[in-house]
């Protein structure tokens, strides 16, 4: 698919200082792989490039991505950051790819719940049907579900005149949890999401109760693609299981390494088929198996250009894992995916 480009200039007295600031933020949050050609900044976000340059009139920003959806998502997140930097909404004139200014945002689809199946005692699989799913089959493993408020007709996000997304608010606000696309057949018009029934969330209840045929919004895709390299260390809890399952199923046959998955009990394990060089180890909490981080610390870290480190779990454990995995020698940021998939709130 050809790449689309959007360009704007933000009138600013000191664009070089702004570029420094954006670079520092991105580095701190590991949001993108950045390069600094001179006073400029190039960021590879995984779904497209952001390029920042000093221009006589201010900060010149170029967004390059494949497809209207990716372009829109990049512009949305960039504009939100610029608004935060400025402390108020920033009005920018964009040139380049034609961008729609009404209707559904190009990264949004309205799906219907086609089927529900119990995969294990605590995992439900929902099959969601929609048109135009091709972009969801590449460049990002994840999406956001857009679950309408109970008992109200859904109000979906729409584009404003400036091309930015207007989200429904108040009683119409949507619940927007992130989920992994466990499987997808874009041509047939469906994708599967596996929903862990942790028992405390709105999505758990919705997944149990939503009538077949009910609408649900999908926004995405995003959040990282399949790992590169062939020397892997993969680990996560139940929320990471759908992504790990998809990664193992799509792994190149030469992949080797270790995959650790922590679940509550042996009934929660799934029949996954890693390539022969990858050892899959299930850690069952109720069997006294080592905790995910303890087990991770025991595995030798892969190193060098073929290494890939992948971890996702609760936020605090993810921060601990990040410390551990950063020690891998000769592993660059683009060779790591470390995600906080949920936050313990003790509610
Ligand atoms: C990129 C990405 C991909 C993800 N993919 C999947 C996936 O494929 N399948 C999946 O099941 N989850 C996945 N998750 C995790 C999921 O988004 C969170 O668990 C989310 O909080 C679920 O929303 P909710 O409406 O159930 O709960 P929320 O409304 O977010 O939270 C309600 C309460 O539930 C608690 N809670 C949330 N998650 C858990 C949990 N796992 N265990 C115990 N308590 C919890 C919170 O602490 C809070 O107290 C993913 C997250 C990310 C960021």
A few lines on this structure:
This protein has 347 residues and is of the alpha+beta class. 20% of the residues lie in helices and 35% in strands. It has three domains: 3-96, 2-Layer Sandwich (TATA-Binding Protein), CATH 3.30.310.50; 108-222, Beta Barrel (Elongation Factor Tu (Ef-tu), domain 3), CATH 2.40.30; 231-342, Rossmann fold, CATH 3.40.50.
User: What is the CATH class name of the largest domain?
Assistant: Mainly Beta
Euclidean distance between termini CA atoms:
45 Å
Task: Give the overall average pLDDT.
Answer: 93
- The SS-based structural class is alpha+beta
Beta-strand content: 35-45%
Unique bound compounds:
flavin-adenine dinucleotide
Descriptive overview:
The protein has 6 helices and 20 strands. It has helices at 15-29, 67-86, 202-209, 241-249, 292-298, 315-325; strands spanning 3-11, 33-35, 41-44, 48-55, 58-66, 95-96, 108-120, 123-129, 142-146, 158-159, 165-166, 178-180, 183-185, 190-196, 215-222, 231-236, 256-263, 277-284, 307-314, 336-342. The strands form 4 sheets. A 7-stranded antiparallel β-sheet has the order 12-9-15-7-8-14-13. It is an alpha+beta fold. It is globular and about 65 Å long. The protein folds into 3 domains: 3-96, TATA-Binding Protein (2-Layer Sandwich); 108-222, Elongation Factor Tu (Ef-tu), domain 3 (Beta Barrel), CATH 2.40.30.10; 231-342, Nucleotide-binding domain of ferredoxin-NADP reductase (FNR) module (Rossmann fold, 3-Layer(aba) Sandwich), CATH 3.40.50. Residues 142, 177-180, 193-196, 198, 200-204, 223, 238-239, 242, 339, 341-345, 347 line the site of flavin-adenine dinucleotide.
């Amino acid at each position: 698919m050809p790449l689309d480009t959007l360009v704007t200039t933000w009138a600013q007295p000191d664009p070089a200082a702004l570029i420094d600031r954006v670079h520092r933020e991105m580095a701190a949050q590991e949001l993108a792989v950045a390069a600094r050609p001179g006073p400029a900044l190039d960021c590879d976000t995984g779904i497209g490039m952001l390029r920042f340059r000093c221009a006589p009139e201010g900060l010149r920003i170029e967004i390059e991505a494949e497809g209207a959806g990716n372009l829109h998502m990049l512009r949305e997140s960039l504009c939100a950051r610029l608004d935060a930097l400025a402390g108020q909404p920033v009005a920018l004139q964009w040139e380049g790819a034609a961008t729609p200014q009404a209707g559904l945002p190009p990264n949004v689809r309205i799906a219907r719940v086609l089927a529900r199946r119990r995969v294990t005692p605590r995992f439900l699989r929902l099959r969601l049907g929609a048109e135009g799913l091709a972009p969801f089959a590449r460049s990002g493993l994840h999406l956001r579900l857009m679950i309408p408020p109970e008992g109200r007709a859904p109000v979906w996000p729409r584009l404003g005149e400036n091309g930015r997304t207007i989200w429904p608010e108040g009683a119409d606000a949507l619940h927007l949890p992130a989920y992994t696309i466990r499987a997808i057949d874009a041509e047939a018009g469906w994708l599967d999401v596996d929903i862990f029934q942790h028992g405390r969330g709105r999505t758990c209840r919705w997944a149990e109760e939503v009538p077949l045929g009910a609408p649900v919004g999908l926004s995405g895709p995003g959040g990282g693609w399949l790992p590169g390299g062939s020397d892997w260390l993969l680990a996560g809890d139940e929320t990471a299981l759908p992504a790990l399952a998809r990664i193992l199923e799509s792994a190149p046959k030469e992949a080797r390494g270790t995959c650790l998955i922590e679940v509550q009990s042996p009934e929660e394990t799934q029949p996954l088929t890693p390539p022969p060089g990858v050892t899959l180890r299930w850690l069952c909490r109720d069997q006294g198996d080592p905790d995910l981080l303890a087990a991770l610390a025991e595995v030798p870290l892969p190193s060098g250009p073929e290494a890939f480190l992948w971890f996702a779990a609760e936020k605090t454990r993810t921060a601990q894992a990040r410390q551990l995995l950063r020690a891998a020698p000769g592993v660059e940021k683009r060779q790591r995916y470390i995600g906080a998939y949920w936050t313990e709130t003790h509610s």
